[in-house]
Amino acid sequence: MDIGLTLFDIDGLEPLRIICQQFKVNITIFGGLVRRLVALQGKQPNLFDLVRFTSDIDLVHDGPPKITEPIMLAILKNVPFAECFRWQIRSTEENRQFWGAMRSNGIIPANLMSLSTKGLRDRWEGAKDIDTRRYRYIRNGFYDTSPLYRAGRDLEVFSALLYYRVILEAGMSLQEMQIQPGIRDARQVITESCATTETILRLQRNEYLRTRLTYLLHSIRAAEVNFQKSSLYDQIPPLQIIFDYLDRWDPQLGKRMRSIIEGEPFLPQDISAQVVSAHLAGDAFRLQSLDDSVSASSRSWAVGAEARIIWQSLEETFLHESKVELARGQVVLMASPEYQIQQGISSSSQFGAYGAQEFVHFGVTLRFGQADSIREYDSGSLACVLTLIAREGKQNTAMAIISPPCACEVVQNSLSESVGVFVRVNCWGLLESAWDVALKNVPNLQSLALRAFVLGYSGFDYD
Fold this sequence. Notes:
Blueprint: H1 16-23, E1 27-30, H2 32-39, H3 47-50, E2 57-61, H4 68-78, E3 87-91, H5 96-102, E4 114-116, E5 119-121, H6 126-132, H7 147-150, H8 156-169, H9 174-178, H10 183-193, H11 197-205, H12 207-223, H13 232-235, H14 238-249, H15 251-262, E6 271-276, E7 287-289, E8 302-303, H16 305-322, E9 330-335, E10 339-341, E11 359-367, H17 369-372, E12 382-392, E13 395-402, E14 406-413, E15 418-426, H18 430-441, E16 447-457
Parallel strand pairs: 2-3
Antiparallel strand pairs: 1-2, 1-4, 4-5, 6-11, 7-10, 8-9, 9-16, 10-16, 11-15, 12-13, 12-16, 14-15
Helix pairs in contact: 8-10, 8-12, 11-12, 14-15
């Protein structure tokens, strides 16, 4: 299939033409962005349409490694709203290990297309899979030679889970999903991976692998909003095999991974939420949910009138003195629970002299009556603000509010009467330095929390 596009034709990436000329390089994009572009053929999508929730923009340039950082800085400076996206850029040399792994990894043709300054490259005819809605997954008998696997940075089961995410995002019915040509191989990979202790031993010894599994499961759960009323266990039966395996050998790890898919038991039935933040060390992530000692209502997202009450309480205690107010026609739609901010540096969020680009992702699926308050809004009419709350004892002793670069997406599913709201926020180095800054103002600081508000613009005043 010839979509007749180059990298420069994507709305928002036009400045890459000048950047390529400046550095005398060609740039190629890989992965999910290209797959989504091909799936939207005939339309004019922009970057916000093509980069979903926790997805990155994966780029490779053919210049020397020393210009990787200058190219990234040029992108942040010249590409509109570049700060709203997480960019992963490598030189051909820096990407060599990953290309070597592609030759021995499980094959997902729809995810192996690339788009460069010269056009689309589709060796495996992945566009045909998308066009016919028949997605292949081909198990690779040479997986054990993968350089990433040998370096402790990959497991064969990950490619099978990625395949399930690809077909989830295609928005198929349960019946369509069950007859996909790659289902047999994907299930076989998962079943055999869970029939040996090698998988659990690698997971237990390697925090990087546990983190990758965490992020993969989050992305699978986020794709659930595309489906009908069936659960993810109906859509992906091998998930139960994975969780039973983890429960047998490491119950704590199994509980953590299972909770990503099943959600927290305290949430109301018509609200399903997830938060994805930067990995710090071990099994710690930047944002931590409140524990069971806090009331259930304090641990769930507030929607509609409940969210506005929370905002109004902030106005009365803090925002009024700070002269912070909503723009005309802007309303508070949702409010997150408080998430505890953990101290530490995330190595994956560092980018040379430019400092940290640390992202936080919120995904909330609303069903039935809760969804009605969001249906009238589209992705372009939403924004997100964050409040940071420093506590000394049980009292709020200091607060701050920021409006960071963000990308909001509204996904509506009429079949399941649900609406998904997905928010990606670039916190830069704010969360990394939050504790140091707060301690200067609150010497006896005991806790530091973050609360997110999703705002909607209706074009008229809310009464």
